[in-house]
Amino acid sequence: MKRIWLLFSQTVTVLVAAYFVVATLQPDWLHRGATRSGAGIALIQAPPGNPDLPAPGSLSAAARKAAPAVVSINTSKAPVRDPRSNDPWFQFFFGDQGNQPQAGLGSGVIISTDGYILTNNHVVEGADEIDITLSDSRRARAQVIGTDPETDLAILKIQLDKLPVIVLGDSDTLSVGDQVLAIGNPFGVGQTVTSGIVSALGRSQLGINTFENFIQTDAAINPGNSGGALVDVNGNLLGINTAIYSRSGGSMGIGFAIPVSTAKMVLDGIVRDGQVTRGWIGVEPSELSPELAETFGVKATEGVIITGVLQAGPAAQGGLRPGDVIVRVAGKETASVPALLSSVAALKPGEKAVFQVRRGDRLLEVDVIPGVRPRPQRVPQR
After folding, report:
1. What is the rounded CA–CA span in Å between residue 30 and residue 22?
2. Which residue is catalytic, options 72, 107, 148, 152?
3. Which of 72, 171, 199, 226 is catalytic?
4. CB-CB neighbours of 284 under 10 Å
5. What is the pTM assigned to this prediction?
6. 60 in active site
7. Which residue from 53, 69, 78, 346 has the fewest beta carbons nearer than 10 Å?
8. For this structure, is 261 an active site residue?
9. Of the residues 254, 273, 292, which one is the last residue of a structural domain?
């Protein structure tokens, strides 16, 4: 035992002596990765990493996959001149106004090698010229294929070769808490990637669009991000960034994106038919409240109550009446007015659909043949 202890003490003594010699004569040997700056200061530098292996938790692979397909959109609109602008007295007091074209900024997503681009309707609405800038700095003039103001979506097309294309994901499988990336061109500073999570799903009644089913996220979205991509951790498209809640004009952690499922429906309708065709039954729906239920004598606690039916409209011809509470449309629950609007809009005009309604204390099934939803009337600009 004494011999083992003696051997151990001698070994420790030799190691300590060696450490003292190295620390005195070659201190840099004790610090792997140590370098010296131009001023001769000893610095410790991390070893070079493998660029093909992202750091744990990094979302760089998703960003590299999706970012090339996200474009910047610059629009210009001819100036609107005041009819009095040629009046010398008007020019004397107010100057020569309205000579500068109006410029706009937004983002878009390339979704096809044919050059189709998804963006927001409000990004390109009223624009006379639309210029697209790709992430590789190529530029092209875009043509508007069609717009859908009721979902605030627009389809553009450019003529370029070897276009990067984003992969479409499945927005219907999203869950609150999923990580997401927002990619766009905020404030025109250049392509920017921000990260966050899905904060909520199915947001509606925001007063932004007619048909609202927004993905809410806390990934930073700012002016110029409109029309950009919301992608998952695999770089697949989940939505089109559309709006933010803000008191300052900048991000406050509440952003909204249109699900890619809605965008695909709008894309198919516009490219195939030149417009989005939606179902319509001609009713005035209201949220079910105890007061309305009592007024119409309905024993229901969920659904959407019909307070008015258009005479000779599809709903009236099918047998729906004021006071009916619509519970399901073609098998889908209708717990709110937006849900009812979306379910009816998804119906194919001319094809019979089953409406499950509660009338008084009875549960009925009514067959309704929807018509084509009238296109919204545009208010002329002055």
Report:
1. 8
2. 152
3. 226
4. 13
5. 0.73
6. no
7. 53
8. no
9. 273
